[in-house]
Design goal:
This protein is of the alpha+beta class. Helix content is about 50%, strand content about 20%. It has 21 helices and 20 strands.
């Protein structure tokens, strides 16, 4: 097709332009977000009706906004209706089944081995006339089931646990899953003897994974498998954290980059075979489906697949690809049948990344001229232009990173410019090996060398001071939301790019000032983090730059909770550790160096053995001084005095021994304000409680 005949509609000529589809999608997503935050659908419905009435009145007097107000109102109303129907007819009935036991017949739709070597099956079944997708953690004594097999079982439905370490419930809700099966009696298994494409692809993936693992060291192969298939089970926690804190963690989340690579290799082969554009498009549809079946599919893969196919289809209909409209259609498709995906971090990180790289960056960089191709300044100018584009991507991703992950990289533009090409090179070599069935496996050592360079650079950069920003304060996140709305309006109505850049700079100054103020006031606050799952609890107490870790129940998992919180809060070295003797080894491997260690609940460890770098003492009751606070620790409770205030930390079933200004409870049966939360108590006695992100 002649490129001169391609039609570019008005949305392309003005990337900021809002038309019917864009306005409807913006209202649709806003409505779902309001429903996600506010559980009362009646309020949202009233809001939609009031908006329509006000919008109708505005349209009578201002006809120019009529084409914007109507899609906005319809989008809000449709979002409320879809959310209400989905919640009442699908989600709530499933949650009501928690604790019930019933007989069901299910089909295996996915099977994989978890980190703990148990088998997790995804089953599709019909209960009470409703189709449900549930994760079943099968018994190791059962024979390995394949995709397509049918199983009849007596199963007990459990809720999906979501704690500080693993936000499984939120992630599963985005996939339309609200139940789990841990205990089940299998009554009958019917094996599927027919060909299964998905099972064949998974078997091929396993073979290629084993080949990569045999060729490369464990850390290099783990990163390569994470980039190829989204399989992060073998990736060390510190390596994963380093990648995200340098802003290149998206390479381990299979998304548009990986899909485009896969389809680009295929398209290059098809062009060599002189396949027509229409036939290439249909082959791309099959390729997207095959790719989604092979990798650990997430919402980012579906979003990328829809946008890629729309971009490929545009020339066939005489149009240029339209990134804003394709993104809107992809967002509608992702949220229509699973509205709770609007609360998923992967959804927003994927969407904001596309906004940055596909809409904001081209708009900001198209006004930057490049010198003549013979000029010696052309190369530096191109690098500068790339940095501006990457900075735009960082600006777009920053709000989603802070709101959903609690932290964001400050070195992201530079790391994407320097480290990301190494990752892309490794991914290209590995994907070439997978696409050729292992014929180019001799390239894997080169891919491993690139992975080694990526890990080394990422760990170095993440260890630098101020490499990333962490925000765990509700006031700062509220200010961030206001800034996002403000920048959005400026972006829509700004006359030039300088006004938009100035608005972003003003918001950055406001947020920096608020963060500095919060940092100063934090030194005058007592912070008590209550961590744990079920009946287990460990507390991290900090004031004036000093920190105490106190484990009241004993569980190796508690050490992971404490280590994760310390890393997220950047509290640094622990001054005092108080834990049961039986869990000393868990803390020794999780915390590193500690100022002083006291072991409780009897049972001494090996003589002269060091825990966290020091020889422990053995006391059931110990007193610790922390700046302006006095702390008395017992095997299952704690008593604090801070600025004349008395605070007790007790099990949920223990009576208060003496009057206190605040009583913190932990353990099974405690309310939501007493587990995986942080209490912030100021010197004037006021306190706030907020959940840990």
């Amino acid at each position: 097709m002649n490129p001169d005949r391609l039609h570019r509609d008005s949305a392309d000529s003005n990337p900021k332009g809002f038309h019917g589809v864009e306005c409807f999608t913006a209202a649709w997503i806003s409505g779902l977000l309001l429903a996600f935050v506010f559980s009362n659908h009646t309020y949202l419905l009233v809001f939609c009706i009031v908006f329509l009435l006000i919008g109708g009145a505005v349209c009578l007097f201002w006809k120019r906004v009529r084409r914007f107000v109507l899609p906005l109102g319809i989008g809000l109303l449709c979002a409320n209706c879809v959310w209400t129907i989905y919640d009442n007819s699908f989600r709530q009935p499933q949650l009501a089944m928690i604790g019930e036991t019933c007989e069901l017949t299910a089909k295996i739709t996915d099977a994989r081995t978890t980190v703990s070597d148990s088998i997790r099956y995804t089953i599709s079944t019909k209960i009470h006339g409703k189709r449900m997708v549930i994760d079943w953690y099968g018994d190791e004594t059962l024979p390995m089931l394949a995709i397509g097999d049918t199983v009849r079982m007596q199963a007990e439905f459990s809720e999906i646990p979501s704690d500080y370490l693993n936000h499984a419930a939120q992630y599963a809700a985005g996939q339309g899953k609200y139940l789990r099966i841990y205990r089940a009696d299998v009554l009958e298994i019917t094996q599927n003897r027919r060909f299964s494409l998905k099972q064949t692809l998974r078997d091929y993936r396993v073979r290629m994974s084993k080949r990569i693992q045999a060729k490369l060291p464990s850390d290099e192969s783990a990163l390569l498998l994470a980039m190829l298939f989204g399989d992060k089970d073998g990736l060390a926690d510190e390596d994963s954290a380093a990648l995200y804190r340098t802003g290149i963690g998206h390479i381990t989340a299979v998304s548009g980059l990986h899909l485009v690579f896969f389809c680009s290799l295929l398209n290059a082969l098809l062009k060599l075979l002189y396949v027509s554009p229409k036939r290439r498009f249909f082959v791309n549809i099959i390729a997207v489906l095959v790719f989604s079946a092979m990798v650990d599919s997430a919402v980012s893969v579906y979003r990328a697949g829809v946008m890629f196919l729309l971009a490929q289809a545009a020339p066939l209909f005489g149009r240029y690809p339209n990134t804003p409209r394709a993104l809107c259609i992809a967002m509608l498709g992702c949220t229509l049948f699973s509205p709770y995906v609007v609360g998923s971090a992967s959804f927003w990180l994927s969407v904001s990344g596309v906004v940055g790289i596909g809409i904001l960056a081209p708009w900001m960089t198209e006004g930057i001229p490049l010198p003549d191709k013979h000029s010696p300044w052309r190369a530096p100018a191109r690098v500068g232009r790339e940095l501006v584009g990457l900075l735009c991507v960082s600006v777009a991703v920053f709000p989603a990173s802070i709101l959903f992950c609690g932290e964001s990289s400050l070195f992201s533009p530079v790391c994407n410019l320097v480290i990301l090409p190494l990752s892309v090179g490794a991914l290209f070599l590995a994907m070439l090996t997978v696409c050729t069935g292992g014929l180019t496996a001799f390239l894997l050592p080169a891919a491993g060398l690139l992975c080694r360079m990526v890990l080394t650079l990422a760990n170095f950069v993440s260890g630098l001071p101020y490499s990333h920003l962490q925000v765990r304060n509700g006031a700062v996140t509220s200010t961030l939301l206001v800034c996002v709305v403000f920048v959005g309006f400026v972006w829509i109505f700004a006359r030039n790019r300088k006004q938009f850049a100035f608005a972003v700079l003003c918001c950055a100054v406001v947020l920096s000032a608020q963060l500095a103020f919060q940092k100063i006031t934090a030194n005058n606050q007592l912070r008590i983090a209550v961590l744990g799952s079920k009946s287990n609890a460990v507390s991290v107490i900090s004031v004036g730059g000093q920190t105490v870790v106190a484990d009241f129940t004993g569980n190796p998992k508690n050490a992971e909770y404490a280590a994760q919180y310390l890393a997220d809060s950047e509290l640094g070295t622990v001054d005092f550790l108080y834990c049961p003797s039986r869990d000393a080894a868990a803390y020794d491997s999780s915390l590193g160096a500690v100022g002083e260690v006291c072991l409780s609940k009897g049972g001494q460890i090996r003589e002269n053995a060091r825990i966290c770098g020091c020889i422990p003492t053995y006391e059931d009751t110990v007193s610790v001084s922390l700046d302006d606070a006095e702390l008395m620790l017992h095997p299952d409770n704690a008593f604090l005095q801070f600025c004349g205030r008395k605070i007790q930390l007790l099990p949920v079933d223990t009576e208060i021994s003496s009057p206190a200004d605040a009583v913190l409870r932990y353990g099974k049966g405690a309310d939501d304000n007493c587990r995986n939360v942080i209490w912030i108590i100021s010197s004037d006695g006021r306190y706030t409680v907020r959940p840990l992100t």
